[in-house]
Each structure stands twice: as structure tokens, then as C-alpha cells.
Amino acid sequence: MKISLIIPVYNAEKTLPATLESIRAQRFRDFEVIFSEDAGTDGSATLLEAFCADIGLPCKLLRAEKNGGAAAARNRALDVAEGEYLAFADADDLMDPGMLELAAAAVDASDQPVDIVGWDWSLGLNQDARYMRQADYATPSEALRNMTGGTMRWNLWIFLVRRELIGQNGIQFIPGADIGEDMQFMLRAFLHAGNVVQLHESFYRYNAVNSASISKQFSPEKRAQIEVNFQEVERSFAGSDFLREYPNALTDLKLFLKRPLLISTDRHDYETWYAWFPEVNGRARQRGSLPAHTWMLQRMASRRCWLGVKLYYLLIHKFVYGIMYR
Fold first, then answer.
1. pLDDT digits 0-9 by tens, 73-91
2. Pseudo-torsion of CA 257, 261, 262, 267, nearest 10°?
3. How many CB atoms lie within 10 A of CB 62?
4. Kind plus residue range of the DSSP H or E element containing 224
5. Contact between 152 and 146 (Cβ < 8 Å)
6. Can you list the positions of beta strands (E) in 82-168?
7. Which residue, 53, 267, 289, 305, shows the most beta carbons closer than 10 Å to its own?
8. pTM to 2 decimals?
9. Could you confirm whether domain 3-206 is CATH 3.90.550.10?
């Protein structure tokens, strides 16, 4: 079996039908589907049972006795996965019909074993969704530099990962640490990877609907989960060749993790930015490889120039991006 497609599910009854249809539409057929249902209270399990009975592909439905979160749900799926490669999706997103086919073709076309295949994605579920191009990389080190520097996403659903790479290096998700779990998983995967392949095509549509405020997204509890995942990254990278070559990489990663707190008009979010990982605030004044406007934003924040931060949000995100992506 070539691929195991892993999908955690929790109370996704409204969005799940469209996701299931995008699985059914996959042109590639040498894969199994593993649903890890996390003790939801809606009709998701019924939909999954009907889908598994009808899909005509290997399909595993794992049922948790009590809700444990996405990280624990994905671990349960990893434990039973049989595919040579792992792919991931969420229960409210859509996959292009060629996603698994073209990712598998990239593996087969390589003249050496491939550990990771990555691709681009789209923000939004409709045909007019915004295309999101990943930063270029040809080696694991280049990908890691992009991710720690904030120019490349690490979301699970834009990668195909060799299962043996994960098993040999003990890479799993941390139960209870559901925020930032894909960060630590993919950073550690790239740390141990050999040959990697990048495809500049959008294979995945991410559901952009999110009404939660920055303050709720970065509540103390959620920041604590991010910190747990960061500590695992820090432990794994200690003494690595990558850190010897890029000693400021994890400092830059901390800046990137807290940057969304500045995309706000709330003074409380700004103060949270300043107080969270305060040891890296000085680094925010150095441009490095950041775009000029992002560097200016972080530099203002490091000096607690909150009026400038607010004006940045209103000018760049509300006005400029509002015109570009309306």
C-alpha cells in the first residue's frame, strides 16, 4: 500500500460530507483512509461508517472513548497506518482530485528514495480561493530555514511523509498539546529527512472561516501548548548540524510563533507579544531575511511603539490586503 491518509474528526458533521467527497474523487487508488473519530457528539461517526462501507478502499474508523484532542487522535492513526507514506487532511477542508496521484508520481519519478513531498495550497474552499505559494527549497536544510524564518508553512496537509522516517526517529504528536503540533512534527521530520521534493501546484483548499479573536487563539492555555511543542523541537534540534549552521533559527521561530499577536488593534495582544518569549525581542530589530514591512512591524513592537503597530494593521492588512484579496 502506497499511502495512508489520516484524518482526525471531531463534531464535523456540517463540513465532513464535502471532505469525504474530495476523498472519493481521488484519482489515485492505492491508499487507505484512517479516520480517528474523537468521541464527538454529533452525527460524524454515522457519516464515517457509511463512507467506509461504500468507498471500496481500505478504510479504518477508530473511535475514542473520550475526547483527547487532535494530537492524540492522530497518534492513534499513526499506530495502525500501513502505507509506505503518510498524508494528512482535516475534516473541514478539500483535497484536489490529483493530490495523492501527483504526490505519489513525484516519489516514483525520483532517482533516489524520497522522504518528503511538499506542495502549495489555497486559502478558501471556492474556485476563487487565494493561491498560497510555498517558499522554494531543494534540501531539508533550506526547508527548515524557511519554516523557522516564517516564510514557509508547516501544516501537515501540504506534505507527504515517508512512514519509516517517522517511525525510525520516534516522531509523534504530544497528547494534549494540540496547538503547534504540526510545527514540531514537520520540523522534526525535515530535520531527519534526506531527499525532499517540492511541487508548485495547489493540491489542498484550506477552510479560511475562523471567527475567533487573536486573544482567544493565543489564550494562556493555548500558548502553553505551543510552548510544549516548541520545547520538543528545541530538544530534538539540540546539537544538530542545522543549528550549528543557523544558530539563530529557533530564536527566529519564536518570533514567528508570536507574530500573529501583532495583527490586531488590541493593546492587550501587543502587550502579550512583548511578554511572551521576551528573550527574543532584541532579535526583532534585526531584519535578516524578513520582508521590509514585517521587519518594520516587529521592530516597532520590540520598542513598544504600539501606535505604529496599529497603523500597520490598518494600512497593510485592512486596506492593502483588503483591496488585493477582496
1. 999 999 999 999 999 999 9
2. -150
3. 18
4. helix 220-237
5. yes
6. 85-88, 94-95, 116-123, 130-132, 159-162
7. 305
8. 0.94
9. yes
